[in-house]
């Protein structure tokens, strides 16, 4: 997940799910939006490449996010930002025996459909991380693109994430798509 000072530190979580996700359709002037909780469980910590049971974070690690469909070169992506007035995704809590202090995860990140265009109707979409260089705050074709970057406290972090998204409840099994304006 990140490098802290001169020590490599990583958290790997096998369990990933979206809890209480909501999709809002676009209006005539605005792209569609989303609101969700990402839950991460079955986490293992690695310090300097070695498993560190002493630094296993409290679970579930929960990210409250808002999503906005954005367009880049005629393709739709989802920009995720914290659903928190303080601008943080979450505070990762460590046991007392861990030399790391509880740390805030902040930033924003962009995901794309790794199975095909998000604009195509499908029962489920595989969201994967978009390359950070694709969304580095640059201006392209007269459009200011967001800066997709995450920090673990004050240290830059690399977030690697993939999630299958599908509709639930009365809409389970139905096709859906995302189209940015």
Helix content: under 10%
The chain-level structural class is mainly beta
Number of domains: 1
Strand content: over 45%
Biggest sheet layout = 12 strands, antiparallel
* Weakly predicted, low-confidence segments: none
Round the Cα radius of gyration to an integer and report it: 17 Å
**Average residue pLDDT:** 90
Shape: globular
What is the helix tally?
A: 0
First-last Cα distance: 32 Å
Number of strands: 14
Could you give the order of the helices and strands? EEEEEEEEEEEEEE
What does the oligomeric state look like here?
A: single chain
Question: What does this molecule look like?
Answer:
The model has no long low-confidence stretch (mean pLDDT 90). Strands 1, 2, 3, 4, 5, 6, 7, 8, 9, 12, 13 and 14 form a twelve-stranded antiparallel sheet that branches. With 181 residues, this protein is mainly β. The chain has one domain.
What tags apply to this protein structure?
globular; 14 strands; 181 residues; single chain; mainly beta; two-stranded antiparallel sheet; twelve-stranded antiparallel sheet
């Amino acid at each position: 997940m990140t490098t802290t000072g001169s020590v490599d530190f990583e958290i790997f979580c096998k369990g990933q799910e979206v809890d209480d996700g909501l999709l809002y359709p676009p209006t005539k002037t605005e792209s569609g939006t989303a609101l969700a909780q990402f839950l991460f469980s079955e986490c293992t910590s690695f310090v300097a490449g070695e498993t560190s049971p002493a630094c296993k974070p409290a679970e579930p690690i929960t990210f409250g996010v808002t999503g906005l469909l954005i367009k880049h070169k005629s393709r739709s992506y989802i920009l995720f930002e914290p659903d928190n007035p303080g601008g943080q995704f979450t505070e990762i809590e460590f046991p007392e025996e861990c030399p790391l202090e509880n740390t805030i995860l902040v930033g924003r990140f962009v995901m794309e459909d790794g199975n095909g265009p998000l604009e195509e109707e499908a029962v489920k979409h595989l969201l994967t991380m978009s390359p950070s260089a694709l969304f580095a705050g640059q201006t392209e074709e007269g459009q200011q693109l967001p800066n997709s970057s995450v920090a673990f406290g004050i240290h830059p972090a690399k977030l690697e994430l993939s999630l299958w998204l599908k509709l639930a409840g009365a809409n389970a099994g139905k096709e859906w798509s995302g189209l940015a304006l």
